[in-house]
């Protein structure tokens, strides 16, 4: 087990001008499950491959423990990786797949067999040890890929979207199992995904990347409640945060209604020099059926336990859209004219990105 | 089950059209197969029967086979030609594979700079007509004392088949999922480990197809052999032509010799058939 550190790590693919990963500084603690998340092209997989040694660094360094591994061959880094498509050796049995790395490292046969059996037992793969990968289901293959990594007892696990080929139900189940397994083994793990729900549910900390740049690295709670910038605010959370462009002058108005914002936030806002701001409310802060904003319902997504209600209202002469997370049962339906209120945590952003402040807000009592 | 028995008809296809196409396909196949059938038939005939007007009913005999495989002093024997061909084909094919595998690896899996140009260079060596190169080759062979030796054919057949083998293996290696090689790399396998444990087992059908084509081309090669090895080290194709005589009938004997010349290749093809068909299609689909 070891910590991992990216120090200004940069990767520029030949023939491109924008680095795939640019000056990444990230420290992953010993035993931590760090999730790298971002949309496609954000550089999360490249960062993982740099740590694996499958991509060279153009600048900066990568450390595993105290050792600078930037120039070390992949096989000498003492890491194990789980690939998105599992990359199981098709001609080898499950047992041979899991024991392949041990064989390459000249581990004696008895020990190899014992370790493979032990891991197979943990992953409930014992009945399949003699099968070839093509005779396994997707979930079983995924477990073999995990087993192949676990059996090595490496310093770091690298996982590149290991659940994305599973169906939704199996993914949720495996997600929990994987998090539990990681906690039990306590091996430093770097996990790449494009799925923010996976990132939020599994990561001890989550690093959000965009266009090769680290946007924010923090606990899931902090990412949700204190997003560093507009991108993180929009990327983390489902449905996404509602954002309204407003004039920065006081009072801040949404539609025709003035927002009552707490004083600390107001003083941060007072020192902001731009004339436009973006005001963000999470869907749970949007109340449908109570409030001063006249709106109509665009659509209702009833999920059983809760309902996502999409509403539209006039804001600064244009139609603004918002989504609300309401407890079920929700009575309204598409087309209904309804009142909407905004109350709870508010995030204020500079339109070019950074967050100015987070506080609480609601509509001032009408009158 | 009834549906599975015949070829499946696609949606909107008419049975009558399919039937006509089927008949055309069978006729084409028969046209192609007929000369081979006639050759085999003739090889079991007496010379007079083979040379007279087509005759389907005759008493079959193995005499032509004993004629052509018998030895007579001063003439190239079947045994000698077969042994020459065997060694030339085996050695050249093994050397081709030993050279082509690393070359294809370098071009497909860890592309060297300008790999496209390199690949083109390989195939460009086939542009030159063999006949245009035969004189320099003959002079070189003479200067190195290689005329009428098996070695000269081993070298030439290696050179002749190498570009093709590199191209074929390159296309097969390219199909191997990149992650598998990376997984092997992370699992601690060096270059040899990757080749032996991952790349070659997966590319085995392709490897079989490549080897088979090299065997066929080397076995059937005639031009180099007749120019460079007319006296010693002659191969099967040359032996076949020794059965053409200027006096008397030779059609049945020639047929018997041709059948014998075909047997090893057909046998090799039949043995490799399963792997080869998978191999040939492996590069095509994607």
- As for the CATH topology of the largest domain in chain A, it is Rossmann fold
Q: Main sheet of chain B? A: none
Classify the fold: give the CATH topology of the largest domain in chain B. Answer: MetI-like fold
Strand order of the largest sheet of chain A: 6-7-8-3-9-10
User: What fraction of residues of chain B sit in β-strands?
Assistant: under 5%
Provide a count of the helices of chain A: 9
Order of helices and strands of chain A: EEEHEEEHHHEHEHEEHHEEEHEEEEEEE
What's the CATH C level of the largest domain in chain B? Mainly Alpha
CATH superfamily of the largest domain in chain B: MetI-like
The rounded distance between the terminal residues' Cα atoms of chain B is: 31 Å
Helix-and-strand structural type of chain B: mainly alpha
Helical fraction of chain B: over 70%
Shape verdict of chain B = globular
Instruction: Please tell me what the overall shape of chain A is.
Output: elongated
Task: Please describe the topology of this protein.
The complex is a heterodimer of chains A (367) and B (286).
Chain A: E1 4-11, E2 21-28, E3 33-37, H1 44-52, E4 59-64, E5 67-68, E6 79-82, H2 94-104, H3 109-122, H4 138-150, E7 156-160, H5 168-185, E8 188-193, H6 196-202, E9 205-210, E10 213-218, H7 220-225, H8 230-235, E11 242-247, E12 253-254, E13 257-261, H9 263-270, E14 276-281, E15 286-302, E16 306-315, E17 318-327, E18 337-342, E19 344-349, E20 355-363
Parallel strand pairs in A: 3-8, 3-9, 6-7, 7-8
Antiparallel strand pairs in A: 1-2, 1-4, 4-5, 9-10, 11-14, 12-13, 13-20, 14-19, 15-16, 15-18, 16-17, 19-20
Helix pairs in contact in A: 2-3, 2-4
Chain B: H1 2-5, H2 15-43, H3 47-51, H4 63-69, H5 78-108, H6 115-124, H7 130-143, H8 150-174, H9 178-186, H10 191-220, H11 223-228, H12 236-241, H13 251-282
């Amino acid at each position: 087990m070891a910590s991992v550190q990216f120090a200004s790590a940069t990767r520029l693919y030949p023939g491109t001008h924008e680095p795939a990963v640019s000056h990444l500084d990230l420290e992953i603690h010993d035993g931590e499950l760090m999730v790298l998340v971002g949309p496609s092209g954000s550089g999360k997989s490249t960062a993982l491959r740099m740590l694996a040694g499958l991509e060279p660094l153009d600048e900066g360094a990568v450390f595993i423990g105290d050792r600078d591994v930037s120039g070390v061959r992949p096989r000498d880094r003492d890491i194990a990786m789980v690939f998105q498509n599992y990359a199981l050796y098709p001609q080898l049995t499950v047992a041979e797949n899991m024991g392949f790395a041990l064989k390459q490292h000249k581990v004696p046969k008895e020990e190899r067999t014992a370790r493979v059996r032990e891991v197979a037992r943990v992953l409930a793969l014992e009945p399949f040890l003699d099968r070839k990968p093509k005779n396994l289901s997707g979930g079983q293959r995924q477990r073999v890929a995990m087993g192949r990594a676990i059996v090595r007892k490496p310093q770091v696990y690298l996982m590149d979207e290991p659940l994305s080929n599973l169906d939704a139900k199996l993914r949720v189940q495996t997600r929990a199992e994987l998090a539990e397994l990681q906690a039990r083994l306590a091996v430093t793990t770097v996990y790449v995904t494009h799925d923010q729900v996976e990132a939020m549910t599994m990561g001890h900390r989550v690093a959000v990347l965009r266009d090769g740049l680290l946007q924010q690295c923090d606990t899931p709670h902090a990412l949700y409640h204190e997003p560093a910038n507009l991108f993180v605010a929009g990327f983390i959370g489902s449905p996404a945060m509602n954002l309204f462009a407003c004039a920065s002058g006081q009072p801040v108005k949404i539609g025709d209604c003035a927002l009552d914002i707490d004083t600390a936030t107001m003083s941060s806002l007072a020192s902001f020099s731009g004339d436009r701001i973006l005001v963000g409310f999470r869907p749970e802060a949007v109340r449908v059926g109570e409030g001063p904003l006249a709106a109509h319902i665009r659509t209702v997504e009833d999920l059983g336990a809760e309902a996502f209600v999409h509403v539209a209202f006039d804001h600064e002469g244009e139609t603004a859209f918002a989504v609300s997370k309401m407890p079920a049962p929700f009575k309204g339906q598409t087309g209904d004219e309804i009142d909407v209120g905004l109350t709870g945590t508010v995030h204020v952003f500079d339109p070019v990105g950074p967050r100015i402040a987070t506080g609480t807000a609601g509509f001032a009592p009408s009158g | 089950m009834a549906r599975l028995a015949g070829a499946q008809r696609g949606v909107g296809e008419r049975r009558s059209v399919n039937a006509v196409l089927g008949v055309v396909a069978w006729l084409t196949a028969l046209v192609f197969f007929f000369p081979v059938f006639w050759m085999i038939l003739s090889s079991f005939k007496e010379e007079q029967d083979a040379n007279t007007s087509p005759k389907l009913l005759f008493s079959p005999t193995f005499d032509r086979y004993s004629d052509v495989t018998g030895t007579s002093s001063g003439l190239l024997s079947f045994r000698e030609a077969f042994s020459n061909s065997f060694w030339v084909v085996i050695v050249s094919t093994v050397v081709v594979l030993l050279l082509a595998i690393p070359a294809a690896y370098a071009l497909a899996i860890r592309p060297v700079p300008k790999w496209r140009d390199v690949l083109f260079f390989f195939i460009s060596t086939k542009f030159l007509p063999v006949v245009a190169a035969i004189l320099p080759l003959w002079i070189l062979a003479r200067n190195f004392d290689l005329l009428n030796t098996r070695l000269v054919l081993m070298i030439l057949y290696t050179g002749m088949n190498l570009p093709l083998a590199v191209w074929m293996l390159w296309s097969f290696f390219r199909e191997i999922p990149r992650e598998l090689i990376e997984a092997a790399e992370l699992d601690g396998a060096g270059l040899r480990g990757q080749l032996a444990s991952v790349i070659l087992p997966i590319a085995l059908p392709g490897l079989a197809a490549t080897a088979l084509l090299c065997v066929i081309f080397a076995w059937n090669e005639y031009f180099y052999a007749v120019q460079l090895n007319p006296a010693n080290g002659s191969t099967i194709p040359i032996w076949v032509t020794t059965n053409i005589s200027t006096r008397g009938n030779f059609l049945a004997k020639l047929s018997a010799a041709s059948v014998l010349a075909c047997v090893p290749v057909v046998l090799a093809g039949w043995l490799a058939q399963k792997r080869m068909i998978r191999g040939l299609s492996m590069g095509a689909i994607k």
